[in-house]
Amino acid sequence: MFKLFRLLKPFRLQIAAVLALVFCQSLSDLYLPTLLSDIVDKGILKGDVPYIWRIGGFMLLVSAAGAACIIASSFLSSRVASGFGRSARSKLFAHAEKFSLPEFDRIGTASMINRTTNDVNQVQQVLIMMMRMMVSAPMMCIGGLIMAFSKDAKLSLLLVAVIPVIGLTIFAVMRKAIPLFRAMQVKLDKLNLVLREGLTGIRVIRSFNRGEYEQGRFDSASRDLADTALRVNRMMAILMPTMMLIMNLTTVLIVWFGAKRIDAGDMNIGSLIAFIQYASQIMFSLVMMSMMFAMVPRAATSAARINEMLDIAPTITDGQAKPSPAASPRTGAARGEVEFREVSFHYPGAERPALDRVSFTARAGETTAVIGGTGSGKTTLLNLIMRFYDAGEGEVRVGGRDVRSLSQEELRAGIGLVPQKALLFSGSVSGNIRYGKEDATDAEVRHAAEVAQAAGFVEAMPEGFSTDIAQGGANLSGGQKQRLSIARALVRRPDLYLFDDSFSALDASTESRLRAALAEETGGAAVLVVAQRVSSVMGADRILVLDEGRLAGDGTHAELMESCGVYREIVESQLRTEEESA
Known about the structure:
Rossmann fold; four-stranded antiparallel sheet; ABC transporter transmembrane region fold; 10% strand; six-stranded mixed sheet
């Protein structure tokens, strides 16, 4: 957890102020019982009323100063903790933004969200407590012991005997609670995962009448977390009553033995009253420390999870290409040209490669289509171009350069990707299109929408291009979302366009108009289209056929019908399906 406290450097002065204020407040608390003792012994017992008023007024001033210190320290500690939480969340989000897809696959989105919110909040809450109790509790304990010894050394031996008992009690409870706190965070991740799937997949759940099944999954995950939380809370529930029992028994013993010492003339009444207060302060400081010990294990677990995420180094970083004589760049390569050289790629844990020794060149000014069965590696191919993953063997080159020799920002700045799942963000229509080019003018936004065949339905909206889009584009149809995704790629006018089955939700008429407009718009750029339908690839300059990760065919539609059995089988199966549906 202390590793995270490096984020507190900007708040050093405020932390110092909090510690100083807590120190002053502790001093005032330790001084008050001595003043009360003087009032009893020198004022009440001797009947000195002016002395009582004088010392009583001074006690009020000391109490007011202590209260002011508490208020100021609480305010500053809350500001520091909030600032720490903001910095930690920003650092986590910024670090997650650098992750490549393997890191997202490894940790999971639900766990990342939980670490950025709940785990940071756990550490933040403990930080507030630590700043206020880190000085106060030890000082009250040690200072209380010193003051108690100054009042009566023999009676103080009771406190010396009780403190180890309290320490052993805290240790015994924490020893069993800490592993359960760790388990709780893992089970909270599981609950978040189930909840997230249940909310994002609500349409599928309802369409298949699986509401009860999902409710059961959620109840199971919730019950598992609740059972662990109950076990922890039962243990922690034992701690506080045990501490209070020890504290009250100690007070009884102090009064018992203190009364005997007063009767023997070895102690004054005021000193006994002060001694009881110091004993209460010592016990209360130990209670505060036990509360801290109750919260620290869970916060330590959360901090470990945060550090685990921050310590993960992205597997894909800039400048990873290894120069080799065989890998020299091809002269005269256009900027958007894509070349695969004997590329192979395995997903972690997969039995067979997603791509196996694939080689081809997609030239600028041409449309290259990729077709194949489900799981043949079409989307993987685009992921390697974008460097969402890196090839295990071989080279992927864009513009004649190995993609690993380019910075990720430089590589992706020249690519317009339209993903398989059309993802839109909450905001306006124009804001979503400008996601592709932040400084795009209104004219550029409108032109991109027109080419993508989106201008018609956008202008029919109540506020046109200023119309708000719901989260995930929930207020748009699948075809509308696809067309806006295409407009987002078009507005940046890249050297390379990647379309990953981006026309699947469009009707034949809209797709035909869109393809004609795209052919004119993309001009000298390289265009790589992944598609499921043969009708979407027949007009391409070149078609690549993938079969179980291998390149089974390369040529035009006519050439492949003659030479590639896999392509011919795809064409015949789709034509047969169309005839049957007709």
